[in-house]
Every structure is written in C-alpha cells, then in structure tokens.
C-alpha cells in the first residue's frame, strides 16, 4: 500500500542528519538499520550499509533508485539451490558432454575445409 501524497515520503530523521554531516564524494559507508526509508535526491552519490538482519550490505545510490526504499537493495533471504549432491553431479556431466561435443564438432568442421 502506498503512502499518502499529503504525508510525503518517509525518511528517517537520524539518517538525514548523518547525510548532512558528510559530503557525497567521501565514499564513507553510512550504516543504517532503517530499511523502510525512501531514497531521496539528496542521497544520490552516497554509499549506505543497509542491515539485512545479519550484516550490512553496501548500496551505492544513483538517480535510478530515487523513490525506492533502501531495503529493496539489501536482500534478507539467501537463495539456496535445490537438488544437492545428485543435482550437482548431473550438471557437471552435462557441462562436460556439452563442451566435449562442441570441441568435437569444431574439429570436424575444420577437417572438412
């Protein structure tokens, strides 16, 4: 659900205070736990360390990110591939046969010329 236009975008006041003390070219990481703060034009050029529940993910803000929230760029869940050991073996076999077939095919074309 979007925020009412009459209220304006939410940006944590402490975060704004930290930004006002720094200059954008410093390259210092501004650590924050405020994932729900909306990125404003004043934040462009800064590097934020956005907390994802475990550690801080560095997010370099550019013009395309204005209007989005900081938490969108710091994933909280780690994607784990399914399949395990058997799946890895199958992928390895297909990779080996795919490269061997490509090399063999290239060799036969060279012989025909």
Characterise this structure.
This protein has 113 residues and is α+β, with helices and mostly antiparallel strands. The protein has a domain at 13-73: Ribosomal protein S19/S15 (30s Ribosomal Protein S19, Chain A, 2-Layer Sandwich), CATH 3.30.860. It is built from 2 helices and 3 strands. The protein has helices at 13-21, 84-112, and strands spanning 29-32, 47-51, 56-60. A 3-stranded mixed beta sheet has the order 1-2-3, covered by helices on one side. Strand 2 (47-51) and strand 3 (56-60) form a beta hairpin. The longest helix is centred in the C-terminal third of the chain and has 29 residues, at 84-112. The chain is elongated, with a radius of gyration of 24 Å. 11% of the residues are buried. The model has no long low-confidence stretch (mean pLDDT 84). GO terms for molecular function: rRNA binding; structural constituent of ribosome. Protein S19 forms a complex with S13 that binds strongly to the 16S ribosomal RNA. This is Small ribosomal subunit protein uS19.
